[in-house]
Amino acid sequence: MDNNPKKVSKKKIIFVQLDEEITSLFERIEKLPYKDIYLVVPRRAVLLQSVVNLKILKQKLDEVGKELALITDDTNGMKLAHQAEVKVFDHWNLGEEVSEEAKKEVESALLKPIAATSNEIADDLPSRLPKKKASIFDIVRKNRTSEKGFSLKSYMKGGSKNKLPSEPFQITLPGGTKRFIGGLLVVSIAIFAVIAYVALPGATLSIEPASNVVSKAVNIDLVPNPSEPKTLKSYPVTASVELTISHNASGVLSEGTVAGGDITVINKSNQDWPLIAKTRFQTDDGLVFRIQSGVTVPRASGDTPGTLVVHVVADNVDENGVAIGARGNIGPSTFFLPGLRDSNREVLYAESYENFTGGTSDVRAIVLEEDLLAARDKLETELKEKALSALRKEVLSVGNKENVNLALLEDSDVIQYGTAKIDLPYSEIGKAEDSFEVSGKINITGIAYDQDALLKILGSELVNSITPGKQLVRIDEDSVSINVFQADNSARTYKFTATLQGIEEYEIDPELEGGSKLAKKIKEHIAGKSIEDAESYVQSLPEVNKVEIKIWPVWSPTIPTLQENIRIKSLSKGSVVELETDLQ
């Protein structure tokens, strides 16, 4: 390569790092305002390792309208560049194409970097250094061979010899000047203190505005072809559902045997106590046993109660209507007489001391007519619930087809259920079955509306109804309520009142009209007052929910007297609702 750097006018040259990938290289080149790009590529660079790399880079640069050329002395890279149809040069004279001899391996050059302030090719290009750089070790080695040597001691010694003598710094002032300057300094400090006391103190009032809930009710017409304001289009929807449910049989058919045993009836009264046949004796678990014939229990004798042993037999079902069967085989137990008043149950009762036997369970459920009627009512209720759910899904389906955000007008006068068609299996009555099935179907019709359009109408009315001096900071879209007061299902026309709620708060920001008036009033009242009095006054204002005052300097006991030094900051909990951005 030439010893003297050569220049190329109006070109762009970029130096490529050894390990630089084509992705990062393309990002460097893509946004450059040059068409002709020349890349200086060192030997064994990653870019020259594969012809694919060069083809990809050339293709990407062709797409952004740039011409690629290479400057390199890497012979293998030159061959790959020719294969990729990329221009290649082995020297800085870019006006000449590479020759066959230039493809031979050449010595690499130590390049001087381009000036940092300009990356134009017209600047001085890199060149060879005239001689080898000297390292710090060469300098130290040279100094060691000198007569004086090179050490910290010799350096300190030489520095002390060359040090200039120091003289005291003095200023001589004529007589009376010192007193004048001192007085001037005192007056200046006093004036500065006065200015600082008046002009520098500041106060910042952070005010959280008072807020309240506002609502707006609007009468809306729902018609098939709307043309008037506050009128929406009605969308008819229908659905049909079928359902089969299983219902348990409640009848009891007991074919088992009942248990029995002996009990001792205890009478603590002073009278004989007659008992008629079939008198009930019941356990705390609800099991009922009866005597089979009438008896008389003898009275007590002194402190000894009268007793009588009788035989009892269990009923088929307990007090809850559940078959007793084998459950009647109980152990020793205590019995009360459910037919007696509570006061007498402590006087006359019974106990058993041996196990009851003979009870077996063979209970089966049977279907009663009451079961069919109960199943019909249950199925009709579930059919209506399922039909309403299906109607809501149909509203979503119609909305997707119409590209409208539809909602169902859920009102008892608008939603109409057809007659439920239920098949009752009367043939099952009296059969010993644990359960039976009942099937039915029902139709449902309703009306849907565009809830985005409704919200736009309500939001516009709510924004326009805000009190002067206040601002709407939030609209609660979930608060929409609808009350239908006129429904004509045949004509599909409806009238309803829709209500929307929002949050409004007082304007505190001084840049707003209401906030500007409030700020002026606050500043006039608190200027020069103590912080406690200022807080008390501001907190008492109906526009304020909470206030916090910060003073500068912090030791200042009062609010600044200059109103310009009082700053009011709004701590609003929301941003002002804008109809165009929030509701459309």
Topology, element by element:
Layout lengths: L11 E4 L6 H9 L5 E5 L10 H13 L3 E5 L3 H9 L3 E3 L46 H9 L7 H11 L14 H23 L2 E8 L1 E13 L7 E3 L1 E14 L2 E4 L5 E8 L5 E3 L4 E3 L5 E4 L3 E3 L8 E9 L19 E2 L6 H4 L2 E4 L11 E4 L2 H34 L3 E3 L7 E2 L3 E3 L11 E16 H14 L5 E19 L4 E14 L6 H14 L4 H9 L4 E9 L13 E5 L8 H4 L2
Parallel strand pairs: 1-2, 2-3, 3-4, 5-26, 6-7
Antiparallel strand pairs: 5-25, 6-24, 8-22, 9-18, 10-15, 10-17, 11-14, 12-13, 13-15, 16-17, 19-22, 20-22, 21-22, 23-24
Helix pairs in contact: 1-2
Commentary on this structure:
The protein is an alpha+beta fold and 584 residues long. Among the domains are: 92 residues; 106 residues, no CATH class. Helix content is 26%, strand content 29%. The protein contains twelve helices and 26 strands. The strands form seven sheets. A six-stranded antiparallel β-sheet has the order 12-13-15-10-17-16, with no helix packed on it. Strands 8, 19, 20, 21 and 22 form a five-stranded antiparallel β-sheet that branches. Strands 1-2-3-4 form a four-stranded parallel β-sheet. Helix 1 packs parallel to helix 2. The chain is extended and about 135 Å long.
Quick summary:
The protein is built from 12 helices and 26 strands. The chain has 584 residues and is of the alpha+beta class. The chain has a 6-stranded antiparallel β-sheet, with no helix packed on it. Strands 8, 19, 20, 21 and 22 form a 5-stranded antiparallel β-sheet that branches.
